[in-house]
Amino acid sequence: MLQYERFEKIIEMLQDQASVRVTDLVPLLGASESTIRRDIAELDKEGRLRKVFGGAVALESQRAANGTAGADAVRRVNVQHRDIDAKARIRVDEKTKVAARAATLIEDGDLVYIDAGTTTGSMIEHIDCYTATYVTNGTRHAIELAGRGFRTYLLSGLMKASTEAIIGYDAVDSLKKYHFDKCFIGTDGIDRENGLTTLDIEESMVKTEVIRRSEKVYVLADSSKFGLVAKISFAPLEAGTIITDQLPNQEFRSRTEIIDLSAEEDKSHS
User: Fold this and answer.
1) What's the pTM value of the predicted model, to 2 decimals?
2) Quick one: pLDDT band at residue 142, thresholds 50, 70, 90?
3) How far is Cα 145 from Cα 137, in angstroms, rounded to an integer?
């Protein structure tokens, strides 16, 4: 990847999530940490971002332009076509913690829905409940679940190539025979006013129907998703329990149940 292409990718990510870390950029850009640090330093000199220890943050003027000024401001999700492999290389540690905690919530005999997505997909290696039955719209998830010997069903419908998800009206129709004990849902944004949001209207249809058909709803999201708003709302904030690595704003607790892993770790160490 040429330097100007790396520059644009870095700026694009800052528009999406307001801050980036060098370690997250290494696999995404296919460059060394030293190269990326030089890129960030150059962009800092050009006045296009602010260099900080371990990465970079968007300038205040950029954040204001994108609706990100202030701790509680709405940040719009701008990146729409990042594929599943690229997303899997971002915030890996945070996603792994969230996924591992979610997997502990599956119990014997449960009928479980696992949403397509990288954080939900990370659950699979941590699942050890073989008496549960699993349903998913993630084609890669289905292969991994079945490969581990779990009883697995895959929804039918249109497959979205970039996310490898089964979506659309046919997928919604294939859900109508199920009544899930638990579902584990991914999201592109969590906002107090706009609720849970995603970028694709056909994916949102599936998420909404799954939530409607689930006794217990868990939303898996790393801390960067809070305050973000994507194009389509698929459920209100209070639709389910949110599992996150770290809750950036305690006011979310007044609206829904939160499992904050950093708080759980603090309690275990006290």
Assistant:
1) 0.73
2) very high
3) 12
